Amino acid sequence: MAARPPFIRLSQALWPIAASALSLLAFFAVGRLFVWSYTLDLGSMVLPAGRQTYFLLFWTVLGSLAAAFLALGLTRLQALAPRAGASTGERRDATWLAVTMVAAFVVAGTIRAFVLRGAVVTDDESAYRFMAQTLASGRLWVASPPMKAFFDRVFMINDGKFYGQYFIGWPALMVPGVYVGATGYMNAIYSALTVPAVFLTVRGMAGAAAGRVATLLYLASPMLGVGAATELSHTTCLMAAAWSVYCLLRSRETPGNWRWHAGVAFCFALGLLIRPLSTLGVGLPVLVSWLVNVVRHSPVERRRAIVAFAVPACSMAALLFAVNFAQNGSVLTTSYARSQQYMREVKFLNVGWSVAAPPASLARYILGSGEWELSLARTAIGLVRLVYDLFGSPLLLVLVALAWAARPARIIWLSALSFVVLHFSLSDSGIDTFGPVHFYELAWPLIVLAGVGFGRLASLSREWRPARPDSWALAVVIAVVFVSLIGFVPVRLHALQIVASNVNAPADALKARGISHAVIFTAGLFVDEQCIAPTRHFVYFRPNNDPGLRNDILWANHLGWKDDIDLMKKWFPDRNGYVMKWEGCRPRFQHLE
């Protein structure tokens, strides 16, 4: 059969690309004319709200169609191009790692600087930052501020000692950022440090090409990028889980090397000091696998492995117990438990809940209602939300499914299953500002499985088209990622911009009025809930102050004009005092005088 003329072959490649563009145009047209320009209505902990559901519906159909057409077009374009020669594997991998690590930092840093503008997305972030500043000063707590009721706040204990309710793992990792005034960018660094674990783990299971695809999916993930732009603990917990798995795989290869056994223990223990339930979810199969492998070692190697594991494990456990004792007076009482005790002691005033609606205990929150059908429904909703926010498209679930038969990936499948089982009865999957945060660490096994699945897809492609073995598989991934970056990611980032604008409104108003060296008193919630619809958020309380109360702007609870003035005269006579109120969705500041 005669070869087709070049212009015909080119047209066969270009018409699918044109069809992809038309599908995207249709998606945006639907949004602009019928779905409020895809301005999302956030503020849900479980089921996506109406506008977001419409967005996901049209994105699933039209976005998937755009990705499919683009993949076809890219495959045909590759067939027209000459094949490039292969480069040295080790050098190419090292270059890829360096570039992608820098890219991971830049992605998170850019989102923080230009989308969030430094805003928090939940009230938890202020508590984490306070504890990082406290640890940086060499303390586990500071003395309660004067007239302490003014400074009670959600997620804080203020019983003479003033400290946050969270485990100290993430605040400790933030400490270097305190010294340079950049705590908000520490997650970006740890996100970059996670990239080698992603690449090396997948490369060991399915080859270098699969490792590069996995890191590409990591970089392109809107949920992971935004999470690394916040001061939340999820990014570092995922990092600890990722390196724990990699150390496990290396300990299998070189059982006599004590460093990998110590690495498994250290990374797992670090994860427990950051987010215990998430770490247990991902890491329990890792511990079981490590133990099974150690039992098979020779007696000498077994003793060496156990000692190497025990030293960091016992050290981190001792650290946890010492912190519990110093903060809460008991080695077994966590700050979570002490926080709930303290809220009852102050009758839930200014701490985020009320006597009529107290917070659920940690056990109750984890175990949920006990109704299996409700738990199943909540878990399914959380997983659906995770797939969209992690990958930007449900199509990449195909890659995850293709990893099912891969023997090296069994430990990853077990991690994913373990995580889902431990989170099955959870009361909710977390805020929807950028993703279901209580399922965040499940992203690690899913990214790895998607990379391994790509290796399987490439193998199938070699059988189907041996002349150009990897072109079809790579075209599919690039098409899905590119279309997601064009359609899905901008909608999610736009919602985040709206949230940041609302959260930053008081600080922006203070700057506009030229108010400085002041104490700002807030009454009730920090936001006017009527003014943040439809893109609602989860920042309800005033910012935390620094431990030494030295910030230019200090925030306090408004307990009454007379009491406010009394606080100012006794403790802050050199500052101006203002009461913040919302009028017409604008923060107003009334001078105490």
Description:
The chain is mainly alpha-helical and 593 residues long. The chain has three domains: 6-85 and 475-503; 103-119 and 167-328 and 360-369 and 381-463, no CATH class; 505-591, no CATH class. Helix content is 62%, strand content 6%. The strands form two sheets. Strands 5-4-6-7 form a four-stranded mixed beta sheet, with helices on both faces. A hairpin with a 2-residue loop joins strand 2 (156-158) and strand 3. Helix 3 (89-116) packs antiparallel against helix 6 (186-206) and helix 9 runs antiparallel to helix 10 (258-272). The longest helix has 33 residues, at 471-503. The protein starts with 5 loop residues before the first helix and ends with a strand. 47% of the residues are buried. The model has no long low-confidence stretch (mean pLDDT 93).
How does the SSE layout of this entry go?
Blueprint: H1 6-34, H2 50-80, H3 89-116, H4 124-136, E1 142-143, E2 156-158, E3 161-164, H5 169-180, H6 186-206, H7 208-220, H8 222-227, H9 234-253, H10 258-272, H11 276-295, H12 299-328, H13 335-345, H14 362-367, H15 372-391, H16 397-402, H17 410-422, H18 443-464, H19 471-503, H20 505-513, E4 518-522, E5 553-557, H21 561-571, E6 576-583, E7 586-591
Parallel strand pairs: 4-5, 4-6
Antiparallel strand pairs: 1-3, 2-3, 6-7
Helix pairs in contact: 1-2, 2-19, 3-6, 3-7, 4-5, 6-7, 6-9, 6-18, 7-18, 9-10, 9-11, 10-11, 10-12, 11-17, 17-18, 18-19
